[in-house]
Write a structure and sequence with these properties.
Number of domains of chain A: 2
Strand content of chain A: under 5%
Largest interface: A-B, 105 and 74 residues
Number of helices of chain A: 12
Oligomer: heterodimer
Radius of gyration of chain B: 20 Å
Order of helices and strands of chain A: HHHHHHHHHHHH
Mean pLDDT of chain A: 92
Structural class of chain A: mainly alpha
Distance between the termini of chain A: 46 Å
Number of strands of chain B: 0
Largest sheet of chain A: none
Number of strands of chain A: 0
Largest sheet of chain B: none
Strand content of chain B: under 5%
Low-confidence stretches of chain A: none
Number of helices of chain B: 5
Chain lengths: 229, 119
């Protein structure tokens, strides 16, 4: 009980501290999830608390993740006008992007000789953590690894995404928002928001939709992966 | 106080939809996450007007503002998996790089093309 309360206090402090830093400097490398987790792991190691003793605190704190994820329908509904207006561009490109991200990530790790649970943890890493973790779980992936891959992808996309898109002359605000949101989910959405409101809204839509499409296409991707083993 | 009560009521509604999604997926044996079904269900209910935005937005906006908080305890699980990065770091880095850059350009390129096509 004492350990659990300690773990919750440490987690809250790490989250609020890194969130304050991010809000102040808004730099993609100041990632709240990665920095908080590193701080918490450092404290747990220093205090000689094994991960198994952190699990009750984790279960308590993530109890609201399910209803919070369902709440993503609210921004989706608020932007339904954009959804209708840019329907073909959104559907076509996000479906393609979600499928490509899944196939390239899992094929490369499969060919690289990684164990199947790591490959399955990599498969859904292009989408927001609540969807990615649940998709990984269905195929016996490891949720913590998936979370790490999701954060790495998001950080990469928000650091380089805007620059890369400019390099190949993709300047349409809708296209830029969709690309950033599909590939680097929430972190890409934050970057897109800094470019402009339309970019941010498109990225937010793409983030949620790519989660849904990735979930729907995952059975197909896993089947194809089996053929190419 | 009434705001807090209202938010709690809305949270209960979100939770019920989430549990409903999980139940449906389990009952039908579908290989998709219950939370995805939950999002689609709430979106449909909003579109049909069965649920109004004012019935859920207080709780939803608060939870979404702090959505990242819930990811932190999940990421702490990495303390058991450090060795994977040590053993396979290069393959993992390459896979993450390629699977980020390729779809980024594909999505950007295709959506720009589809937008231009419509004039």
């Amino acid at each position: 009980m004492g350990v659990t309360i300690f773990a919750i206090v440490v987690t809250l402090a790490a989250y609020l501290g890194t969130r304050y830093l991010y809000m102040r400097y808004r730099h993609p490398l100041l990632n709240v999830v990665a920095l908080s987790a590193a701080l918490i792991i450092a404290v747990l190691v220093a205090a000689r608390i094994p991960y198994s003793q952190y699990v009750p605190a984790k279960d308590f704190m993530t109890a609201l993740l399910g209803p919070a994820t369902v709440g993503l329908a609210v921004p989706l509904y608020r932007h339904r006008g954009l959804l209708l207006r840019f329907g073909p561009a959104i559907l076509g490109s996000v479906v393609l992007g979600a499928f490509l991200a899944m196939m390239t990530a899992s094929l490369m790790t499969q060919w690289g000789g990684l164990p199947r649970d790591v490959v399955m943890s990599m498969l859904p890493k292009g989408v927001s953590i609540p969807f990615a973790v649940e998709i990984a779980r269905i195929y016996n992936g490891i949720p913590a690894l998936t979370a790490a891959f999701v954060v790495a992808t998001g950080t990469l996309g928000s650091l380089l995404g805007g620059w890369l898109l400019t390099l190949v002359r993709i300047d349409d605000p809708v296209a830029r928002g969709l690309a950033l949101g599909t590939v680097s989910h929430g972190q890409g959405t934050a970057t897109a928001l800094m470019e402009g409101e339309l970019q941010g809204a498109m990225a937010g839509l793409a983030m949620i939709l790519s989660g849904i499409f990735t979930a729907g296409l995952a059975p197909l991707a896993v089947w194809l992966l089996g053929l190419m083993a | 106080m009434t705001q807090t009560l209202k938010a709690l009521g809305q949270l209960a509604l979100l939770w019920a939809i989430y549990l409903g999604g999980n139940w449906l997926v389990a009952a039908a044996g579908l290989p998709i996450p219950g939370n995805v079904v939950g999002v689609l269900a709430l979106f449909s209910l909003l579109c049909l007007g069965v649920v109004k935005l004012s019935h859920v937005e207080l709780a939803a906006d608060f939870l979404l503002k702090h959505l990242v908080f819930f990811f932190v305890p999940i990421a702490v699980g990495l303390m058991e998996w450090g060795g994977v990065f040590y053993d396979y770091g290069l393959v993992l880095a390459a896979a993450i790089l390629v699977s980020a850059v390729l779809p980024l350009l594909a999505v950007g390129g295709l959506s720009q093309l589809l937008r231009r096509g419509r004039g």
